[in-house]
Specification:
The protein has 290 residues and is of the alpha/beta class. The strands form three sheets. Strands 3, 4, 5, 6, 9, 10 and 11 form a seven-stranded mixed β-sheet that branches.
């Protein structure tokens, strides 16, 4: 059974005439007749009665006509939907938080669009708390985050040591290595409130357990403010290796005391489009941090 025969049958039923149906379908009367004979043979039932007054539907033909019309309408709707989808520009929505992720995306997107030039990549910087919400509510196709969520597709992109970040005017700036114990004399700046509420308590507990005091802990409302405060020598912080504003120096910690910083690419559905972007991110990470 094909749609051509269904259309011919519907046209004959509408006009009650082989001639009129042939004119509507832009084919010859012979073609319509041959297709109707083949349709009846295929189904094993008679659909049409030819007479001097035209072509009439048999009772079986009358019962099948609404089904045929419904099938044709559905088929046309399917074609229109497919056409509309082809005309739409594919969009890949990505969210990130920190400067390391931003640097990775800069190189990855250029590489990605060599393979998918028709895809529009939309990138948004979000707070870490908003990233958690974005993952739960599927607001983005791909999220770069420092914490993997159980049940989601989480692919490790990059793992780095954490460094002490100090102003170039700070006394520690000339050191090639420093210990956490030595840094406890310095104010330490962490993200606070909505910008990083989900891990603020963990960071504070870690600082207190390593000899820092509450009086020495300062808060920044955003990562940009945090970097500015470090640059102004109002305190230190701990950051992974990346490109930071001039005036900030990263110093290795003895025995990697601050641990590692990992970045994950997370998504709910691993499509070929997302898989390729993740591959580009991994490639960029290897190039930037060999």
């Amino acid at each position: 059974m094909n749609t051509e025969r269904l259309r011919y049958f519907a046209a004959v039923a509408e006009h009650g005439s082989i001639t009129a149906a042939a004119q509507q379908c832009f084919v010859s009367q012979t073609a319509i007749t041959q297709q109707m004979n083949a349709f009846e043979k295929e189904l094993g039932i008679m659909l049409l009665v030819r007479g001097k007054r035209g072509t009439q539907l048999t009772q079986a033909g009358k019962e099948l006509l609404p089904l045929v019309q419904h099938l044709l309408a559905s088929y046309d709707d399917l074609n229109q939907t497919v056409l509309a989808l082809k005309q739409q520009t594919p969009i890949l929505r990505i969210a990130y938080f920190g400067p390391v992720e931003y640097t990775l995306l800069t190189d990855s997107i250029a590489e990605f669009q060599l393979a998918y030039p028709e895809t529009e990549v939309r990138v948004a910087k979000e707070s870490s708390s908003c990233l958690d919400l974005a993952i739960e509510q599927r607001l983005y196709d791909l999220v770069l985050t420092v914490s993997a969520h159980p049940g989601d597709n989480a692919v490790p992109i990059l793992t780095q040591h954490m460094y002490a970040a100090v102003s170039e005017r700070n006394a520690f700036a000339k050191r090639h290595e420093v210990s956490l114990h030595e840094l406890t004399c310095e104010p330490v700046i962490i993200l606070h409130g909505q910008e990083n509420h989900s891990i603020e308590t963990v960071i504070m507990d870690w600082l207190l357990s390593n000899g820092f005091t509450l009086e020495k802990i300062l808060f920044a409302s955003s990562i940009d403010e945090q970097l500015l405060m470090v640059n102004m020598n109002r305190g230190i912080t701990f950051l992974p290796e990346s490109s930071y504003p001039r005036g900030i120096r990263l110093i290795p910690l003895k025995n990697n005391e601050a641990g590692d910083h990992s970045i994950y690419a997370m998504c709910h559905t691993m499509t070929p489009l997302i898989r390729h972007m993740i591959d580009c991110l991994i490639t960029a990470a290897k190039k930037q941090h060999p």
